[in-house]
Automatic annotation (TrEMBL):
InterPro entries the record matches: SBP
Superkingdom in the source lineage: Bacteria
Keyword Transport (UniProt): yes
Pfam family, one: SBP_bac_8
Identification of the protein by name: Extracellular solute-binding protein
Amino acid sequence: MKGKGIKKLLALSLAAMMTFTLSACGEKAASNPEPAQTTPPKADTAPAETPKSTETPPAEPVTINFWHHYSAQSKENETLTKVLIPKFEEENPGYKVNAVSHEWADLHDKILVSASSDTLPDVARLDIAWVPEFQKMDILVPLDQEMSDFGTVGGNLLESAMSTAKIKDHYYALALNTNSKIMFYNEEAFKEAGLEPPKTMDDFVNAVKKLSGKNKDGQQVWGLDEPALSGWNVLPYIWSYGGSITDENFTKADGYVNSEATVKAVKMLADMYKNKEFTGFNSGDIPMTDGFGTGRYMMLLEGPWKTAEMAGGYPDFKYGTCEMPAGDGGSISVLGGEDIAMFKTANKEGAWKFMQFMTSEFAEVEMAKCGQIPVNKTALENDAVKNADFAPFLDAIQTAKARPPVASWSEIDNELTNAMTSIIKDGTDAQKTLDDLAAKMDKLLAE
């Protein structure tokens, strides 16, 4: 899409920039309602290491520009610049990588601006929520159409993570790293109450109820905390209850977001809030980590970053973790993470080489040492990965779903958050509110 088309989309994107909210991995500030549309490509083999290129080097040196949002002072950036890029350049003579670090929001905005001036990089690490937006702008390469070995490369990566790169019938990125959420629970409180970690939704509801009330100091304690009521927060409960918010092709909400199972899940949360068993999303509520570490919140559904936050703020606090409790839909958490994508203005041969390298077993294991959860299937079997701090999350990412990969997701999520707030906090009728939400979502999905 060139000229007037991309300028129109750019104008719309810039207008929404100030209200751009959730990312797929920025959820710690708050990462598919149905299974992936098709089975991702299967790998012929899963290479144990990145092979050195046997192709003739380019006649002239080629620089691959790579934009990312690893913090400039982070371990990830140090590994990228001191380990990964030197190895890539050694294995691929004639290619150099110019890696540029941006802040998360700055990178999104920089890409929007650069799209109109043909100054995009070759490759970028994208929040999974950005892929549909940039695909709609027609600036991403459909990899399955243009890369002859895409089936093998994509097949080496986790299917759930690859679902975030698929828009309608084509793949516009490779999964790069992933994350999800599991249940953190107050170990001492569970023991005193005679409770086991909840395995089912019935166990979960019972535990929330039993653990809520007043503590020995007369303070209110809550069985469950969620810091927001967005899709990132409520979808695991909806999915695990057997509900959904769209059809499997992400084209229709009516009959899904207002289905019996979805209504039942939302009513469960509303009843918990009404009974003072659930909180965290109101202005003035105790921050999540503090509430958990001081024994005011008994359970949290959170990501791998919570382990480091608890170690830093409450190193002596004893807690356990378990998977999302299973309901009629199974144990389904929400998927976050980042993808790596190629822009249409790229040196495609060099960009594809670099993308393959960054998703190789070697690169993924090196980044795992920095806390990034791999998507490469062979890397996931590596001992360094299995013994990492994020190891409790490795089962969850196998069944977790991503939020709908549609360009209008930001607007849909705002409407979803408003509906959840209305039902859970304000007590409006769940069925009617979700019927109204379905109509709004169908209009947005049709855009």
